[in-house]
Write a structure and sequence with these properties.
Two copies of one chain form a homodimer.
Chain A: E1 3-9, H1 17-30, E2 35-41, H2 44-49, E3 53-55, H3 61-66, H4 89-101, E4 104-111, H5 113-128, E5 134-139, H6 160-181, E6 187-192, H7 199-203, E7 215-218, H8 226-240, E8 243-248, H9 275-287, E9 294-297, H10 302-305, H11 312-332, E10 336-342, E11 350-356, H12 357-360, H13 381-387, E12 400-401, E13 404-405
Parallel strand pairs in A: 1-2, 1-4, 4-5, 5-10, 6-8, 6-9, 7-8
Antiparallel strand pairs in A: 2-3, 10-11, 12-13
């Protein structure tokens, strides 16, 4: 008997998370002998708990195709609802109950490491409860921090290539700005996302692989502080009269009033001040030994939601990995996450594979030491060789209507509920 | 006898300031019977004072053509050196001296209202000193705050259309983000540039002329404060569960530690905190009556230096107005700024005209009252009709080489100096 599928997104979005969604949907459609209805859960796992399910099969085909160039998670929503605590046993049981009620046999979870942990636990619990359920993960994070230090589980996560392209192009633009304004605003400080790892900050170097731009990168993995930053900046000002500084959002984190997200991680966007502001204040008050002022730029969520900088390579891989997840679900059963691995050789080529959810769950990957230069201000050529192919060539083909971007828009109408109302543990 | 020309840029850049530079250069080339060498002053008027002049005639033709899609002012530099005070008489005299030494008969100054004041004074002083000099202004500012309240001096300034396009597309992207993340980050706060006027903030509305997005605009011309903002946001959260807030950089300015630029204006990018941060802190600490957190985004200089969002209409007009300035210089003599005016009728068409520098100097234009809705949170359809044509259709044709943007790069080599070294008054 055919079973239905649920697909859900989790955590912060990427410019290509919907390409993975499209891959999952089209993958499911191609296995119509196994998979019946395809539902999307509205706002990630919260939608499962609240039984808020959208029938994807009835959405216009055109909207599904538009997912490819629709950034962030406005199509089906995402959330940061954490499902780890022992005290959330009720939530886990509710999930199983909802799956049972809607004859769900396949659950595709698009997310980062926290989400793969949830996916693993749901998969285990279903087994315990005797529910025939295949849970398959689809990797997603701009941070590129999912996986192992040897890049054997996954070469890179979908989303990272687009965040990297955003930063490469941004630094090119800011270089024009900084070069032009250097006599009055010699230092441009920019803050890049990346909770624990410096992959996004590092991608700024892709703007300038030949190192012509006075660019300093303060990655999460290095131990610079305000004083060493000011020293480095002043040295560069003496040499070239200007400096572009990219700081990881957690730079000198002691000074930030921290906020936390639903996963218990620091939520830098909601903090009382920003790393960029702390640096700007320090430089302008005590640190700057040159005429002019430092200015701060905090793109915040813009870097993970900007359609125009989505990498074509990233879009395609995000789509493929979504499709691969369905293939894995059908062919290999529960407990896997689809992965992207790089073929050996000098030209960039990837293949899609799988890794056990358990292994990925709560994994964390940092920028390897040997990709950071000795002064802790730059990345090596090896990093450039790794990251450059990910940003691709050319612009994404965003559809324009009446001068504006035309994004996918589903009809958000929930299918009939079959269970009594439920209040998720964390909302009580 | 032929005279030489100097072109210079002044103040904060725009994504199309170089298109005006290209227009001036090509205009000068087309009047080769009047104009000899074309020099660019490196970093605005500072380059004149320091006698740092670049020979444009000897730059590769290809680089001049690339100016069209090169954002910000990295090609010839700009500055915020103020030339107003009586005590800077020496600087004014130095300018005349440099012009005399290099046989300068034409001075093209690309800038905002402050710069038109400088241009006017230089023009007057040259007349007094018996130097045959034609000074012509080329308008430039993303703020659209140059001109008169009736839009009779100038309909809009080159640069504004691109800043407007940046914000229109940005809000479209952030809407996808906010819609997707609303259950954990229901409020996205973004800070728009615009020192005294709300034209840029207002342009966010172009993302959503039909008003489908829960978007609130806090323009400089309205008198909202943190408390009324929180009330408005909470009302929207109750209605739709999410809210996108765009605040003018000077919102509730009392809370910002102010920094000042060389013109004596507040330099928000260098201030101790930002309007967005003040709003985020207020909402997260006392104001937010919903689950989740507000996050802050401060694009800063990115909004005036991003090539990808340059409006094709704006690029073309910026180029034309630069060319027009040369025509005015030759045909009408000194003391004018080239302008853009809109033809009557329902389809968008412009023509290029002129206004006296004296009239433009230090003019300031605010968003007219009748373009702001009564609740002070939105603009009217009249504003949309005014601004929508300025963002154009389609993407600019930025040249890509090796996966990166290829911008114009001049050979920065100064022509032989003819005068003793000089230290500008403000650097002493």
């Amino acid at each position: 008997m055919k079973k239905n599928a649920i697909v859900a997104q989790s955590g912060g979005p990427t410019p290509v998370i919907n390409a993975s969604l499209q891959g999952v949907i089209e993958g499911c459609l191609s296995y119509s002998e196994h998979i019946g209805n395809i539902y999307a859960s509205w706002h990630g796992i919260e939608g499962v708990l609240l039984e808020e399910l959208i029938d994807i099969s009835s959405q216009p085909r055109e909207e599904i195709e538009l997912l490819r160039y629709t950034p962030a998670a406005g199509a089906i929503g995402t959330c940061r609802y954490k499902l780890k605590e022992e005290k959330q046993v009720e939530d886990f049981e509710r999930i199983i109950e909802v799956f049972r009620a809607h004859n769900i046999g396949y659950f595709f979870y698009i997310g980062g490491n926290d989400s793969m942990d949830t996916a693993y636990k749901v998969s285990e619990l279903a087994r315990e409860k005797g529910l025939e359920l295949v849970v398959t993960g689809v990797p997603k994070t701009i941070d590129n921090d999912v996986g192992d230090p040897e890049f054997k589980i996954i070469d890179h996560t979908p989303g990272y290539g687009s965040a990297a392209r955003y930063w490469a192009y941004l630094i090119q633009n800011v270089n024009e700005e900084n070069r032009g304004m250097s006599v009055s605003e010699p230092v441009a400080v920019l803050q890049a996302m990346g909770r624990k790892s410096g992959f996004i900050t590092a991608a700024s170097r892709l703007a300038d692989p030949d190192r012509q731009i006075p660019l300093q990168l303060y990655m999460a993995e290095t131990d610079h502080n305000l004083e060493t930053l000011a020293e480095n900046v002043n040295r560069e000002l003496k040499r070239s009269g200007r400096c572009i500084v990219v700081v990881n959002e957690g730079f000198d984190v002691g000074a930030l009033g921290e906020a936390h997200d639903g996963f218990g991680n620091i939520e830098y966007g909601a903090s009382k001040t920003t790393a960029a502001q702390v640096v700007v204040n320090y430089l302008n008050e005590v640190g700057l030994k040159a005429r002019g002022q430092a200015t701060g730029q905090v793109p915040g969520v813009i870097q993970r939601s900007t359609s125009a900088y989505a990498s074509r390579v990233d879009i395609d891989e995000a789509y493929q990995v979504g499709k691969k997840a369905v293939e894995i679900a059908i062919e290999e059963g529960t407990g896997w996450m689809a992965t992207i691995l790089r073929k050996p050789g000098s030209s960039y080529q990837v293949y899609f594979d799988k890794a056990p959810l358990e292994k990925v769950a709560n994994s964390v990957r940092y920028l390897p030491d040997h990709w950071i230069t000795e002064d802790g201000l730059d990345v090596t050529d090896d990093f450039i060789r790794y990251a450059q192919p990910l940003i691709g060539e050319g612009w994404p083909e965003i559809r324009i209507e009446k001068g504006l971007q035309r994004f996918a828009r589903f009809n958000i109408e929930f299918i009939e509920k079959k269970l009594p109302a439920y209040i998720p543990v964390k909302f009580r």
